[in-house]
Write a structure and sequence with these properties.
12 strands; alpha/beta; TIM Barrel; 2 domains; globular; about 350 residues
Length: about 350
Amino acid sequence: MVDVPLNFPLGTSAATVTKVPLVLLDLDMEEGVTGRAYVFGYTPAGAVSIARTTSEAADLAKGTAASPLQLQQCLGRRYALLGVTGTVRMALSLLDMAVWDALGRAAGLPVARLLGGAPGTLAAYDSRGLGLAPPAELGRQAERLLELELGAIKLRLGYPTLAEDLVAVDVVRSLTDRPLMVDYNQALSLVEARARGRALEEKGLLWLEEPIRHDDYSGAAALADELDLPIQIGENFNGCEAMLQAVQANACDLAMPDISRIGGVTGWLQAAGVAAAAGIPVSTHLMPEMSAHALAASATSHWLEYVDWADAILREPLQIRDGRAILPDNPGFGIEWDEKRISALSQ
């Protein structure tokens, strides 16, 4: 577990984030291959819980074949009474991703190719900053982010008043004509979301993300029906079952599963199938180094959410060129730890 300071402090409607706890996993196979993956632990206590559960799950799986689907089913049953949700789900997702990385390394192929996709480039948007801040500070944040020239940029909203939200959008719009999406991080009531959503419809935004409580599918369905502005949810889907429920409820125009909450790569494949059947574009949430491989194998691939959090722990960070993320052609996920920097962060 390491605490990574953010290059761009992130203000959301819930909190201001200045550093993030990451859980790094080396999964050793009996054949000598080591699979690597990481997840965002949200809080220090969450990271501890994920790490301990991952170790326990790996012990339970010891000696079995490295079959991601079989491991998902077996470990899902072992943790059923505790509940495969929250940190348990994230631990099993972390384990799943490390298994996929090991399989790719053993085969000499990137995970994207194992999944039926291919390395290349992906449309990516900048999600590193642009949190709640006074207009002048928001403008300075936007200018820094625009230097990377990604294809789009995300703005967090949820100021005390609608007027302040609109000012924030106008500040960013005055600096760039790049596509812009907004994220409320579940800050609004349904009534307030209607009012703010209608006002934001005039701003030409790509999407309105999590305006209300993440599991209020009936409320989200009402917003999706009433607003022309596309509704984006999904980072809190607990497994593909939750995504299926949301799709069946018509709760979203767009979906954004989190690879650590949807069930790792294996869970992502299942969720991507749901999205493809419903014709819903899918985007990723955080952890772009691994999420990119899953997105590259998704029939309705939309946007990769780019953050630079893992740059502090990797020898070769994810590369951006011409506003797009470059998917490496290295085996597995193509990630290698920078042990010296990790050691310094762990002290």
